[in-house]
Design a protein that fits this description.
The protein contains five helices and four strands. By secondary structure, the protein is an alpha+beta fold. The chain has two domains: about 70 residues, no CATH class; about 30 residues, no CATH class.
Length: about 110
């Protein structure tokens, strides 16, 4: 049985991991970091308190975080179970087959047009 404390720790850990990866990616891409810093300084200029409603004005930071989530998903492997018979990539999966979705690989898959 999960304790409430475990749930809060798991949520906090995931957020900290994403913040850490975002900072890492910004440090190795200095031009992007300067652009994010400029946007944050412009949006929060002179404010002593930051509110949730202010975050909607960070138009450049949002895609930076989305790209970080694509490159470094907090949960790279997601277990699932087939609810109906299906065929994926030429392989048949009967009902109740347990599959693992590799989100990390999907985020790096090249789009073929």
């Amino acid at each position: 049985m999960l304790l409430m404390q475990d749930i809060f720790i798991a949520m906090t850990d995931t957020s900290l991991v994403i913040i850490g990866w975002t900072m890492f990616e910004l440090m190795i891409h200095a031009r992007l970091m300067h652009k994010v810093q400029g946007e944050i300084r412009q949006v929060f200029k002179g404010k002593k308190k930051v509110y949730n409603s202010d975050i909607k004005d960070l138009d450049y930071l949002r895609p930076v975080i989305n790209e970080t989530l694509r490159l470094h998903p907090p949960t790279p492997l997601i277990p699932r179970q087939c609810k109906e018979k299906c065929e994926i990539g030429g392989y048949n999966s009967p009902v109740n087959t347990k599959v693992t979705i590799n989100i990390w690989k999907i985020g790096r898959d090249q789009i073929i047009e």
